[in-house]
Amino acid sequence: MQVMMPSVSSLPTTAKPSAINTAGTATTQHEPQLLDLGPDLTVYIGAERDARFIYKEIYGDNCYDIAPLPADAFIIDAGANIGLFTLYMKAKYPSAQILAFEPVPQILDIFRRNLALHNIPPQDVHVHACALGAESVQAKSLTYFPNAPGNSTFVPEEKDLLRKALPAEHYQRMIDRSSAGATKVDVPIERLSRFLDTYRNLKQIDFLKIDVESWELDVLRGIEDRHWGLVRNVAVEVSELSGLRGQIEALLISKGFNVERELASWSYETAPTYTVLARRDGQ
């Protein structure tokens, strides 16, 4: 989701809130705090700069207002983070049902707090503590950035490329600050179709949102053809540095979507980030 991080290739592994950082000393993770992000939203957050950045994208730039959805829309939130997209969609479509995925325990805890804070009924948002991917995996190492949770990733190498691509020393220092305390967390991975099979009467998937830090293609490959026909709209955030955009667009076109891309307003010329938008005819 953002632009922040240096090398993290040799971090130790942990799945506990109290982690070990790159210096080998104990690191206390951010205690969630309540924050007024705007006149329309108060939430629990773990890192203020990260939360404000995502809030601006969703609530200010309206980056996910890509098509009108039915009042009872079925929405998938892949890379739910602290829940801002889910809260936005539930405010806009109160009768919507959302299937949400967030693998990092520390982030998931904040997401659940925000659902409770905003009185979202559990039956309206089904939350799963796993990542999505092309294959089911019991545990895979994910790099978690407590100062920038939205950047947590299975592909930390792409963050190293980002750091090298940024031209100004100022931005590199910003990345260094944001990556302080980075740790590795083992998380499970499941295929999206495994969950969709549990919805016996599912007739339409109105919106699939994917923001998973260079893991987007794996998420898409976890959808079986029997479910692709149900999907009406897709939004995928992808960094050009990942090298995945062309493959993502080709896959979506092969599934019958009309595909376009929008350059993120905050994107850097040397490290562009796009939102790939896919819609069915008539959307």
* Cα end-to-end separation: 26 Å
Shape: globular
Instruction: Provide the gyration radius in Å.
Output: 18 Å
Oligomerization category of the chains in this entry: single chain
Write the H/E string, N to C. Answer: EEEEHEHEHEEEHHEHEHHEHEE
Strand order of the largest sheet: 7-6-5-11-12-14-13
Tally of DSSP helical segments: 9
Largest sheet: 7 strands, mixed
Which residues form runs of ≥5 with pLDDT under 50?
A: 1-28
- Percent helix among the residues? 25-40%
The structural class is: alpha/beta
Number of strands: 14
Q: Strand content of the residues, in percent?
A: 25-35%
- The overall pLDDT average reads 87
Descriptive notes:
28% of the residues lie in helices and 26% in strands. It has helices at residues 48-60, 84-92, 105-117, 156-165, 169-178, 192-196, 216-220, 225-228, 245-254; strands at 18-20, 26-28, 33-38, 41-45, 74-78, 97-101, 125-128, 131-132, 137-144, 183-190, 207-210, 233-239, 258-263, 273-279. The radius of gyration is 18 Å and the shape is globular. 44% of the residues are buried. The model is unreliable at 1-28 (pLDDT under 50).
